[in-house]
Amino acid sequence: MLHLLPHAYVCRGxxxxxxxxxxxxxxGASSLPYLTNEDLDEISVALITHFHLDHCAxxxxxxxxxTFKACMRQHAPAAKHTxxxxxxxxxVPGPHESTLDA
Length: 102
Hints:
Strand 1 (7-11) and strand 2 form a beta hairpin. It contains 4 helices and 4 strands, in the order E-E-H-E-H-H-E-H. Helix content is 25%, strand content 20%. The radius of gyration is 13 Å and the shape is globular. A 4-stranded mixed β-sheet has the order 1-2-3-4.
């Protein structure tokens, strides 16, 4: 299975995750990025650059199905649309749950 890894960088001693999108060519849980709780525990902030599915559509999964507790920031236009546009994606199951491919 192909997984996308969100980009993580260290800046001033803190780990920053850049974007958290889905793979647009895949469906269900296979479209989600590969995220481990151990890696997420090291993230200080997640920055969402813009409102494209490959950059922000896994945010509901990140918040609802992982141990992610860091701060999240978005570009102002993206933040305005994210809550309503991503609402249908909140039902995307995790990798160990049933998939939407049925």
